[in-house]
Structure formats: structure tokens, C-alpha cells
Amino acid sequence: MESTVATYSATRPRALRRVDAGALATWGLASGLVLYLGLNGGGYDTVMSSQVGLVLWWIVLVGAAWGVLPSSRLSRPGWSGLALFGGFTAWTALASTWSISSERSLQDLSLVASYLGVLLLAVAIHRDRGRAVRHTVNAIGVAVAIVATLAVASRLDPNAFPAAHVTATFLGSGAQGRLSWPLNYWNGLAALLALGLPLLLSIATPARTLLGQAVAAAAIPLLAVCGHLTFSRGGAVAAAVALLAFLALAPNRLPKLATMLVTGAGSAILIAGVAHRSAIVHGLTDHVAAVQGRQLLVAIALVCTAAALGQAGIGLAMRHGTLPRILRVSRGRARMLLAAGIVVALVAALAAGAPSRLSHAWSDFKRGSSVGQSDLTARFSTLSGNGRYEYWKIAVQSTHGHVLQGAGPGTFQLLWEPRAPFYSYVVNAHSLYVETFAEVGAAVRLALLVGFLLLLLGAAVRAVMRSEHEARARAAGGAAAFACVLGLGELRLGLARQCCPPHSCCSPLPCSRRCHALCGFAAALWRPPAARRGRRDPSPGLATCGARRNVGRVPGCDRHSACDGERGASEPGGGRRRQHFCGTRGRALGSPARARGRLGAAAGRAGARVAAQFPGCVGGRSRGDAR
Fold first, then answer.
1. How many CB atoms lie within 10 A of CB 456?
2. How far apart are CA 396 and CA 325, in angstroms?
3. What's the rounded Cα separation, in Å, for the pair 81 and 426?
């Protein structure tokens, strides 16, 4: 199989050799799924999610049968994650046999099987962790920005998007002011935007080009405006948690803080502009709304351009400037400042009466009084749970007598209706964990789900800690987005609403496009680094050498001095031989590719210069190897 792939790569045109197939596959899977499902009602519909799942599984099966999908060794967390999620899917299928509604349980199984297909396909196309995380973060960030742009455009020019008013028309005038298109659910849209904020920040700060940094920074105020128009309190809290997690995990925080200040100022200006335009706030479609929409469009263009220019200035300053000494904080001093800040915050909270305030807030949340629809901005000043406490209470009480098995996947609505203290059309419990406990019990399925999520969270933090510079910033953005989805994004933002349509556009698990993105990011994290797999770096010309770090020790080109190490390369005949990589932008000396004559004259001259400069590396072995 490897010889066939090598022969094909040697005969294909030179222009196609420059195409990174792995990057294209990652972008197609991550951004393609988010855009397709996001623009088709968020993937809540059972038919839509089932169609996507069938296509994905056909790709996996056909690709595995014909050997088309590239595959490589997984790390231990990768195998553990696949085993846990595979067990979760198998238990869902088994639980359908004792379910009180086989139809609902099979719908739930279809959705979970789709997530497993995404996970398997992402594992197959990803090669190494660094490149997989980078492309996945970029792809999902761009897709979220496109969805936000279309959502804001539907509010500024409602006549151009007639489908944007379907949800408001069905639910009544109370839902008209809350932006929900194209996902047709305002809380789901807000959660998607909260997931995209740390991703865009991780692109804006360490991107390789100033243009990429500027474009990513320009999209952040647009996401803030879109999130404000959803009037989702949980989405706002989730976004704040995601940004704090990104700052806690990201390296070199000063430029990140500068970017957040620039984009935050632009976001505040746009939100203030939206608040003074009542027709935009309430989602009207008359002439006044059209005029205010054009005014706001000009303001958005100016603010996003200013944010892009500001980020370009920050990027230039970080590339060519020198950080003042007063801003250089050592790790020990940073820990002391963090500890002092925590102590001061605790003292201030106790002095302000935080315990009593939290008690009153919990009481308000349990009371569940509805928030008035006349002043949507007032939603951010109330802590009412809108009945969520009752949903969770009924879910827990319904497990009495069958804690280990539950009532069956996807059956929460049937558990709620006979026990409901008030009338409310509810499909889900607004909490993935509570709903899983009520439907399938705490014995197996909940343990598998929690184990899978904790394993993924550990892999995300581990990837951050083991990465450096740009790679760590990207991993921090992905980990922050993952924490947003796992924590407040799923606990506070359930998929059902109190007045969910009878035809049910709600799914029994987290929103499809968010979970598909989550599975793709999981597969990226479970890829071992390229060096650990004993392979060349997949990107050509990026073989590294330690000559810069070991000036004065180069002449011997010892394994522990000038060259970073050895990597194996598969021969067409099946054997393996050792190679040595030299030069910061060089290629492998004596590689099978050169033996087959696939390198041009320029590469030959470059290899000759490297061999003349480092005579100890000739022939694919160093002097240290000869010893």
C-alpha cells in the first residue's frame, strides 16, 4: 500500500504535490460540517442529522475498505477516547431495548452514531497533533465567523433573508427580538459564538501573517454584536468563561490582553449602537428598521476595520519592538501576583456579602419567574432560571426505583409531562448530564460520557502544556472553547426551550454542529506529535536542526549537539533505515525520495552545502551513530 502511494505521489504533477491533502480534509470536515449544519437549522432536525451521519459512515467504511483514508498510530488517550465513546454508543443501542419509547431512543442512537462517525473520520485524516490542532482551530473559527456574519446580516436586512423569521413567527411576538437564525434557536447560536471567541483570539494573536491576524481580530466585534442580539444570558457567561480560560492557558499574555482590549472596545461601541436602535433590537421589518440597519452596517464596517488596523499594529510591535522591562514578569513573580490577587478577591467578596448574595441568587434561580419580553436588555440583570430547576428536579425524581437503567434514551419529555408542576412543552432537561442520568441511569452510560469528556479535557490541557509559542496559543484556544461547551455551554444552554415547536427542532444531545466540532477537536488532540511517531514532519522543508542552539559544538554533528535526532522513513521495499535531518529549512540527506530522483537540482545543491558545512551528517548517519 505504501509503495502504491509513493508511486502515485512521484508521478502526479508538481503543482498537486504542493497541495496539503491533510489540511484540505481537515478544513472540509470541520468547517464544512459547521457551515452545513449551521445553515440548515443547526442540525436539530432528525432527518438532517441522520443524513449527515449516513454520509460520514459511508466515507469511513469505503475509505477503510479501499485504503483511501490515511491512518497512523494513535496515542493511548486516543484509543481510550474511542473506546469510551464507542461504549457510550453501544450502551445507547442496548438501552433502546428497555426504553419506554423505542422511536425516541433510536433517534437518540442515530445522533450519537453520527458523532462517532465524525470522531473516526477525524482520527483517520489527522496526521500529527500540532498541524491537526492548527487546522481544526482555524477551520472552526472561520466557520463560526461566517455564521455570525450571516446572522447579523439577517437582522440588518431582513427582507434578504425571509427564512430568518420562521422561528419568531411560530413562537409569537415574544421571540421576535431574539436573533436565532440560521440555527433557529437563540441559545444555540449564542453558545456557538461563545465557542468561536477563543478560537478567533488564538488566530488573531499568533497567526503567521499580519493579514490573518487582522481578519481574525475584525471578526470578534461582529461576534459580540451577534451574541448581544440573541439576548442569551448563558451565552454571555459562557463567553466570559471561555475568554478567562484562554488567558489562563495561553502563553505571552500581554499581546493577548492588548488584542482583547482593542476588540473589546470595538464590541462595546457596536453594542451601544445597537441598544439605541429599537427597531434592530426588536427585530422589526419596517422602513425604520431598514434605515437603522444601513446605519449600523456602516458602523460595523468602520469598527471592524479599526480593530483590524489595531491588531496589525500590535502584531508589528510584537515583531519589531522590545518589551519594556517593567512588563517582563518572571514565572515566580507571576505566581505570587496570582496568589495575592486570589486572596484580595476573596476578601473583597466576603466584605461585599458574597455568601448572602449567592443565596439570594440561588433562590431567584429556583423561583423560575419569567423574564418580561418588553425590555430584552433587562434579561441580563435577572437570575431567573425560567423553570430549569424544576426540569432538573423532575429528572432526578423520575429515576426512583430504576437508578441504574433509566427510562431510555431520548425520553425526558415522557418523564416530564405526567409530573410537571406547570404546563410547559419541554423536550430536554436543559442539562446533558442530568438528562443522561434520568434517561439511562448512572450505572454505565453516564460514567462513559463523563469519562470521555474528562479524558478529552485532560488531553486538551496536556496539549497546551506540551506546546510552545504559536502551537500553545492554538491549543489554548481549542481548550478554552472545549471548556465552554462542557461547562456552562451544556449545563446552562439546553437545547429545548419552554415553548419548543410541536414538530420539535430540538435534538436529545448537545447541538449537532457544536458536537461535530468537538469530535473533530478531540481527534486532533489525540494525535501524537510527529517526532514521537518516528516520521518526517508532514510539511515539506520544516525538518529542524539544533545548530542555532549549539553554536561551537557543530563540527562533530553529534546526536546530542547539532542535530535534533533521527527519524525513520519507510522504504518501498518494506525495510526501514535511519536518517538525519540538518538545516533549519533543509531536507533529509540520503532520503528515499532523493534515491528515486524526485528532488530537483536546487534541492541537490542545498544538500551539498549542508553536507559541506556539517561533514559528520553525510550518508544519513552522524559520528555519534558510528560510535
1. 23
2. 56
3. 32
Query: Of 435, 395, 434, nearest to 417 (Cα)?
Result: 395
461: region left, alpha or beta (phi > 0 left; psi from -120 to 50 alpha): alpha
3-state secondary structure of 524: helix
Q: Annotate 10-76 with three-state secondary structure.
A: HHCCHHHHCCCHHHHHHHHHHHHHHHHHHCCHHHCCHHHHHHHHHHHHHHHHHHHHHCCCCCCCCCH
At which residue does the C-alpha cell 525520495 appear? 593
Instruction: For the beta carbon of residue 79, count every other beta carbon within 10 angstroms.
Output: 13
pLDDT (tens digit per residue) in 9-62? 455 555 445 667 778 888 888 888 899 988 888 887 888 888 888 999 998 888
Whole-number Cα distances in Å, 54 to 25, 57, 253: 18, 5, 43
Measured CA to CA, the distance from residue 218 to residue 145 in angstroms comes to: 10
Q: Compute the 3-state secondary structure of the chain and give helix, strand, coil in percent, each to the nearest 5.
A: 65, 5, 30
Can you tell me whether residue 426 is helix, strand or coil? coil
What stretch of H or E contains 604?
Answer: helix 601-613
- Region of poorest pLDDT, from 10-14, 175-179, 205-209, 464-468: 10-14
> What are the angstrom distances between the C-alpha of 533 and each of 465, 523, 527, 594, 618?
19, 16, 10, 22, 24
Q: What is the dihedral of CA 378, 379, 380, 385, to 10 degrees?
A: 140
Decide: 42 and 185 in contact? Cβ < 8 Å: yes
| Site of grid cell 446533558 | 432
List 543's β-bridge partners, or say none. Answer: 586
Virtual torsion, Cα 291, 293, 299, 302, nearest 10 deg = -110
CA–CA distance from 381 to each of 56, 232, 236, 320 (Å)? 43, 12, 12, 44
Nearest to 495 by CA among 129, 188, 127: 188
List the grid coordinates of 519. Answer: 469530535
In whole angstroms, give the CA distance from residue 48 to residue 32: 14
Closest CA to 366 of 386, 381, 382: 386
What does DSSP assign to residue 430? S
Distance (Å, rounded) from C-alpha 246 to C-alpha 482? 11
CA 239 to CA 480: how far, in whole Å? Answer: 10
Q: What are 381-428's pLDDT values in tens digits?
A: 777 778 888 888 888 888 777 767 778 888 898 988 888 888 878 888
The residues with which 578 forms a beta bridge, in sequence order, are: 568
Q: Is the dihedral of CA 37, 266, 374, 359 positive or negative?
A: positive
Q: Which of 35, 18, 298 is nearest to 147 (CA)?
A: 35
Q: Rounding to the nearest 10 degrees, give the CA dihedral for residues 490, 492, 497, 503.
A: 10
d(CA 213, CA 491): 32
- Helix/strand/coil for 569: strand
The C-alpha angle with vertex 153 and arms to 147 and 154, in degrees rounded to 5, equals 90
Question: Which residues, 6+ apart, have CB-to-CB distance to 578 below 8 Å?
Answer: 566, 568, 620, 621, 625
Q: Residue 353 region, left (φ>0) first, then alpha (ψ -120 to 50), else beta?
A: left
- The secondary structure element, H or E, covering residue 570 is strand 566-570
* pLDDT value, residue 84: 87
Bridging pattern class, strands 576-580 and 566-570: antiparallel
Tell me the backbone φ, ψ of residue 253, rounded to 5 degrees: -75, -20
pLDDT in tens, 354-364: 888 888 888 88
**Residue 608 clears pLDDT 60, i.e. is over it:** no
